[in-house]
Every structure is written in structure tokens, then in C-alpha cells.
Amino acid sequence: MKKAIRVLLIGFFILGFSVAPLLAKTVWNANSVWPPKNLHSVGLTDFAQKVNAATNGDLEMVVSTGGALGYKGPDLLKAVRDGLVPVSDMLISGVAGDEKLFQIVTLPFLVRDSEELKLLLDISRPYFDKSAQKWGQKILYIAPWPGAGLWTKKKITTLQELKGLKTRTYDKNGALVMEAVGATPFALPFSEVYTSLQTGLIDSVMTSTPTAVDGKFWEVLKYYEPLNITIATNMVTVNLKAFNKLPKAQQDALVNIGREMEKTMWANVKNWDKEQEGISNKNGIETVKPSTKMIGELEKITESIRAEWLKSAPADGKKIYDEFQKKVKR
Question: What is the mean pLDDT of the chain?
Fold first, then answer.
């Protein structure tokens, strides 16, 4: 068999054919846990298509959405590190249990809007890149979600009205916020949220507008308070060993298209938020804008959460925090 293959290869060279193109194509799986129409899944698909076009098909990413590859959010940093999937989109807060530096983007009421989030991430990026490298991967782009608010059965207009809520939260700091205001946090898988709202196990959810639309919250909830408790962010990373095996031109394509993708995703997030909120409103959800007084009270009551994180934060985390506070003059 080996002799036959050797003869075949020699024949190709004699006839003037190069076997290199036959060996050059690389095919990677690219993972997203979000539904196909979610902006982050759409972004990853767009990114893959642009890379495919830029490399003339020599680097192909096959995108799987909706968690079809079987990897769960908290496992994705490890999955990419171990080469189980070469490329994945991941919620930064979802993997922050493995990398404490990433927890800075989960601190409640640290950033007040998407512009401040962009500033925080611009400061954080060199440190995040270093952390990703430690985990055997490279960040291709970072993209935001709309801010997290509260979706409730009763209208909330004051801090006092938050007391007694039974709220589904999605991370540790979100749970600490609800405890600080006298509510009870519940760590539930999203698949159980709708039923839990129906049965009364919970009466509210902390999340962003796209998730509310995915969950058809208007069928079980009545109000949306856009508090911007945190503004979640995703990152798309590539396994560093896989990246380093690529020809330089393909590496450059990944980096450059990632940079452009990041700009596009940031430009689209506000419209995405408005669109998803509009869908919720059209279906019966009433948006209740929080007062300046209420936001100020929430910022004050959550100071201890931010301070507690700083006590044990990595040195780089403290540098990021201090530089951010200096730039926003707080």
C-alpha cells in the first residue's frame, strides 16, 4: 500500500501536478451555544464565511449553533484549551469561574452604558489576551450583549419594591445583587425558567432583551426594568496550537477579520437591543424606565460587592479597575 501511494505521488510530480493544494485545506468546527438567529450566532457564522472567502476555502469553519456540539457554557474555556473544539464563542461571565480576571466584566453597576463597557474592555484587552494565552488560546474578537435588566410580574419603580422578589440570576454577582436588595436569587438553567415562572417558583428574571424574546417572557411576565445591572460580553477564541499550525496568511485573515467583526458587533448591539425590546413591547411587555434615584441607590448598595471582589482580585484586575475608575472619574 505504501509503495502504491509513493508511486502515485511521483506520478503527480512527473505530470506537473502539485499535491500541496490537496493537503492545504483545514476544516474546523466553530461552536455557539446560542440559537441560530441570536446575534452572536449570526456573527460567528458571518465571521466564518468571511474567513472562508479570504482564504479561498483553505480554512473552513463549520459553525454549529444552539449547543449542538454538546459543550456547555462553563466548560468552553477548557474545551478550546484541550482542542475539543478549535473555535468557540463563549460568554465571558460563564467561564469567569475558571479565570478570575474575567470576573471584572461581571461586577454589578461598574459600567453604566455600552460606551463605558467599551472603555473597560479596551483597558482590559491586553490583560485578557494574556489570560487567554495562559489557557492555550487566542481571542479573535469580543462582542457585547444588551445590558441585563429585570423582567417581572409586578411593576418595579423603587428599591423597596425589589424586596421579596424570587429572581432567576445567571451568575454569582447577579445573585449577590438580588440578595443585597432583599430578593431571593435562583440559579436555574434557562430551559427551566419558563416553567418556573408558570408554577410560581420564581416571579422575575435578570437577563437581557434577546433572552427575553427567546423565552417568550410576555406569556408569563408583564414588565421590563432596563437597569443595566451588568452588560454581558462574549468572546470568540481559537485554540493556540491550531492557530499556530496555520500559514501566516490564514493567521492574518483570522486576526484582521476578527478585528472587523468586533467593530460590526459593537455597532449593531444598540439596534439589536431596541429591536428585541420592541418585540417584547409589541407582545404586551411594558418597559418601566428606572429613575436616577433608583439607579443611584443600586450603585450604592452594590459597592460592597465590587469592593469584596477587589480584595482577592488578581493584580491585573486591580490595575484594570483603577484605570477604569480614573478615566470615568468615579
Answer: 92
